[in-house]
Amino acid sequence: MNLPQDPVILLSVINTLLRDKYKNFDELCDDYNIKNEEIINKLKLIGYNYNCKLNQFK
């Protein structure tokens, strides 16, 4: 699966995957073979950061 480039759509996809399939963000990144910094930096552009206690970007 290719992840969307648009940050708002990416946010939705990532949070859905975290809610439905993955226990944490690192597990998701390992499964998709992506660097977590790429996602973190894209979502920071729209004001979102990963919250490990909630396992979602807020």
Break the fold down into its secondary structure elements and pairings:
Elements: H1 7-20, H2 25-32, H3 36-44, E1 50-51, E2 56-57
Antiparallel strand pairs: 1-2
Descriptive labels:
58 residues, mainly alpha, two-stranded antiparallel sheet, 3 helices, globular
Explained architecture:
The structure is a single chain. The chain is globular. The mean pLDDT is 96. The protein has one domain. The protein has 58 residues and is mostly helical. It has helices spanning 7-20, 25-32, 36-44, and strands at residues 50-51, 56-57.
Question: Which strand order do you get reading across the main beta sheet?
Answer: 1-2
Helix vs. strand class: mainly alpha
Outline, from the CA principal axes?
globular
Helix content: 40-55%
What share of residues are in beta strands? 5-15%
Low-confidence stretches: none
Number of strands: 2
Q: Count of helical segments?
A: 3
Distance between the termini: 23 Å
Overall pLDDT level: 96
Number of separate structural domains: 1
Order of helices and strands: HHHEE
Rg, nearest Å: 10 Å
> Biggest sheet: strands, sense, closure?
2 strands, antiparallel
